[in-house]
Amino acid sequence: MTLNHAKITKNIDHPILKKLPEEIRDEIVKRAESRTVSAGCMICRQGDPGDSFFMIKSGAVRIYRETEDNIETELAVLGPGGSFGEMALLTCAPRAANVMVVQDAKLTSLSKEQFDWILKNYPVVSLTLIKQMASWLMDNDQMIEREHSRQYKPPKLSIFDFIIILILSGLCALIFNQSNPNGLQLFPNTSLNPNIRMVPPSVAVRQLNRKTAQFVDAMPNSIYEQKHIAGAVNIPLSMFDIMYMMGLSDADKSQKIIVYGRTISRLYDVQLVNKLFLRGHKNIQVLEGGLPLWKKKGYPTAP
């Protein structure tokens, strides 16, 4: 049942949506559907087509996998603010798990057609979902590791075995590095490519005002949310590869990009521009002095 705009707007308060611009939220609201599901009902089953994305407004659902021998593996219990189904829609793969309501729930859903339309017309939603998925994948890896530790205790390694594994790992890394056209770095490159130059804040702020350059914040998302240059896009260095693969690879490589973000111990900006340069982006610069110098000169920041 499709709800009217005012009613959905009042109830939708989801982490994936709350940071999006108002016009994007309004468009999602227009296309969303709401339903109430009783405890004990199955929302979707493992192997079903991934045809909907769900956000939980109230209640709770249980997500679990089941083997052919009916052995269940608990993945998560989600409450208000949680979501499920985004992975199946983004990958076009069947449902990876069962979802059952354990407490009467109110759900807001988007069909695959509605979801694809929103991603096509509002790329910022894709970036938001990528961050959400990366967090989910890390949580899932930790869960698998804990489950594996309970079921299997590995044999103790001798010092000789450890040395052999270390040597073989290094050898494999060197071989792969030689066969990789971009060259896989065993240690992060903290020196700026000689073809990339620094840009002083006084020059960069004019380009910001004229909208002739895209500013990119390479810091972790938690630091970006505290303070960043007004209008800058957050592309955390730790998530660069997955974000590039899922969208940035099709970006205009002639666009001017100004990157900033570093700490005393980590040059996030230098490492990110070096990665961009290897992928064919040549019109890129590093902001001299980073955010501290930018703020010192009184140039615009957010929030």
Low-pLDDT residue spans? 1-11, 183-187
Overall geometric form = globular
CATH superfamily of the largest domain: Jelly Rolls
Helices, by number, come to 12
Overall number of strands: 13
- The class by helix and strand makeup works out as alpha/beta
Give an overview in words.
By secondary structure, the chain is of the alpha/beta class. It folds into two domains: 5-142, Jelly Rolls, CATH 2.60.120.10; 197-302, Rhodanese-like domain (Oxidized Rhodanese, domain 1, 3-Layer(aba) Sandwich). Helices cover 42% and strands 22% of the residues. It has helices spanning 5-11, 15-18, 22-31, 86-91, 112-121, 123-151, 159-179, 201-210, 221-226, 240-245, 268-278, 290-296; strands spanning 33-37, 42-44, 52-66, 72-78, 83-84, 98-111, 197-199, 214-217, 228-229, 233-234, 257-260, 284-287, 301-302. Strands 1, 2, 3, 4, 5 and 6 form a six-stranded antiparallel beta sheet that branches. Strands 7-12-11-8-10 form a five-stranded parallel beta sheet. Helix 5 (112-121) crosses helix 6 (123-151). The radius of gyration is 23 Å and the shape is globular. 23% of the residues are buried. Residues 1-11 and 183-187 have low confidence and may be disordered.
